[in-house]
Amino acid sequence: MKRQLYFVYIIIFILLFCLPYQGLAEKITGTVTVKGLRSPANILVYLTNTPSISLDVTRANFVMDQKNLTFLPHILPIPVGATVQFPNNDKVDHNVFSMSRTKKFNLGSYKPGEIKTILFDKPGIVELRCDVHAEMSAYILVMKNPYWAITDAHGKFEIPDIAYLKEQGVSGVENLPAGEYFIKTWHEKLKTQKSSVVVPNNGDVSVEFDLTRGTPSVLYK
Amino acid sequence: MDYCGIEGSNVSAMGLRKPSKDKRMYRKKTILLLSLSILAIFFSLFYFEKRILAQTSQRKILGAVIQGRVLSPYGPVENARVRVVGEEKYTLTDRQGRYVLQTQHPPVLKLRVTAGKEGWFNNAQITSNSSQDTDIFMYPIYLNDQPDYSFISPVTCAGCHIKLSRYWDQSKMAHTTSNPKVLDMYNGTDALRREGVGPGYRLDNPNSNGNCAECHAPSAVASGRWSQDLNAVLQSSRAEWDGISCDFCHKIRKVTQNKDKPSGVSAVLERQSSSSGPSILVFGPYDDVVVSPMAASYNQVYEQGQYCSVCHSHFKKLDGGKTWSYNKVYSTSEWKGFGLENNTVVPVQTTYQEWKMWQDQLSFDDPNKGKKCQDCHMSWRKEMLPYDNYVVDKGARHMWGTHRSPKNIHPHHFDGGTQTQLKTALAMELEGETSGNRLTVNVYITNTNGGHWVPTGETMRSVMLLLQARDASGKPLKMIKGSRLPEWTGVGKAGAGNYAGLPGAVFARVLGDDQGNLHVPFWRATHIAVDNRIRPKGTVTLQFQFALENPEDEPSAEAKIIYRPVIRPLAEQKRWLVEDILITSSVW
């Protein structure tokens, strides 16, 4: 009997430990479907307005790789203030640069095996180019807040994606407080959609997007 | 095995007899000795392994030092480039022709060391096992250009350089004579081959062959007294005369100023038939190609933008010493950048000068300093992957191939006004702001990847900006301030590519004549009316304003940047099927 009580205490303790997180915040989940693209993957879904949050990006380790004349990943969202590494894992020299007004930089030509880094200190879209390989282009999306997610192969997303952010060295992200938010999409080849979403006091909320081909809008107006 | 069954010892609990005291001592001593021996062996091994490792790593860092001299029938050769074949690192010889080459190879390996210098045939020598010097003998190229030389067909080159030839054959460079648009402009015909459809050089100049062949059929021009009529070139049996062929390009010894040429520059050829054997004299960027089918000679001009200036610039001297007011279109520095001193010349095409002007004004520590035509127009493409380490294929690879880094291989695709190349040539950003009943949209267009002005080359090319603003319901907003696209972007339905009157702008170099006609062909041009093309790494900012019916509305704006290879009126007149290329688009 005593032993059984002991287990009950443990379970109660675990529940009490977890409850504050559940009470503080909720998630926005959903699915994106697309017309005109082979896959609903790699679409950015993000919130434009969120309460201010104290993020620690000092240990962020975002990477924009270069291999086989391709930037990997093609779209890399990062929180503002984060640093991105640009390793050259190709067999030829590359010259990464951006002339976007969000962040202008030019890393110059560098050899396979070398790594260069850049700090992104202003939110917005940064179009990456390679000066000698016309086919190479990618986007670094510098986000105002950490409330974004990239869709998986089935178009599913979950905001915030705390596990992914932790993996990237970003800490201090919590689930969303209840309230009304604006949620938008961004993909290089898809028309941006925007809608409002109300996060309740308890439980998650689901949002569906049905996107069509077109030109995406700026991240923040 | 009686070590545990020695006579006279006690019987243990397991039924074994205990060894005697002496025997135990003996066993202990044996074990101790054995242990010491094992330890000694272990330490010896550790010590020697460390030494071996140290030696290996030292060798890895230092490797074999190859030294010797580069000599010739005229004595030592100074400033020859010496390297282990295929490797990136090279050294230069001193005044005594001496070189010291530090390698990473073990000294026991026999290495092929090559030497190359402009004006000399490349040559090679194998290192010996002994400490003897590796001397390399070079022979000069005697200037003996033979105007009656018959250029070798690209088919011959393709025998070994299969991939390079294929890339070249798929490029415009291979078909500059048989290009239908070139022939239509030359003959005054249209796409249906109907005659008398202008503009046409021969329609205006029936008694002149013109100088088109200088760049559109340079092998024919260089081949003695052959007619420079493009039609005659095509009708000749010399198929290799169509296009800028391999053998023509690789016979260029240097590039010099020549005011008599349309580009103001001429290619100095060195055409030599082999006196013995099958060797073909070829110039190129490699100083380590020493193979029997070719008598190769390193030439630095192949690594310079100047090489392309032979054709990628075109100036027209005005008749009768006429002049025109260039300062209405260009700044003094731009005019000087074209290499022009007086206003009796119309710069028709200035791609090379545009690049040079950009490079000249860059500081030495600028990351773009030193970028040249070959870097972008002869770089690897995804469709060519996986990377190759050779410039020859199949059997030739095994017999004569040199393994080299892909970064030192320049695939000959010569991409220019193609979708691939244009997609990243320009970038655009939009910025909007509403104030009362007004929406202001700023458009920023940047020439990100073009090392020259965009568009460049042929003046029939243009780049258009199309801008459309809408209210929240999708209704188009009326523009109250900003530029509109001119008539020559096409009158008619926008869906059919006619954009005249729509909010936007067009970027082009527009040639004019004395009668006030615009978009005239170069041979009729007397001046440049407009040249608002986008400079390398330059940003053009355009502002547009639209009327908002409801100040509380949430309007949006969408812009597209489109490349048009041939302006609409000319394309319609010539019945050419030309496709616009969408460079980029943006939404605010």
Low-confidence runs of at least 5 consecutive residues of chain B: 1-17, 52-60
Biggest sheet statistics of chain B: 4 strands, mixed
Q: Count every beta strand of chain B, where a strand is a DSSP E run of 2 or more residues.
A: 26
Helix amount of chain B:
10-25%
The N- to C-terminal Cα distance of chain A equals: 64 Å
Q: From N to C, what is the helix and strand string of chain A?
A: HEEEEEEEEEEEEEEHEEE
Q: CATH superfamily of the largest domain in chain A, called what? A: Carboxypeptidase-like, regulatory domain
The CA-CA distance between the termini of chain B, in Å, is: 93 Å
Strand numbers in spatial order across the main sheet of chain A: 6-12-11-8-9
Q: What are the segments of chain A in which pLDDT stays under 50 over at least 5 consecutive residues?
A: 13-24
Largest protein-protein interface: A-B, 34 and 40 residues
What integer value in Å does the Rg of chain B equal?
Answer: 35 Å
Beta strand count of chain A: 17
Q: How would you classify the helix and strand content of chain B by structural class?
A: alpha+beta
Tally of individual helices of chain A: 2
State the oligomer: heterodimer
Rg of chain A, rounded, reads: 20 Å
Percent helix of chain A, as a range, is 10-25%
Shape of chain B: globular
| Total number of domains of chain A | 2
Instruction: Report the major sheet of chain A.
Output: 5 strands, mixed
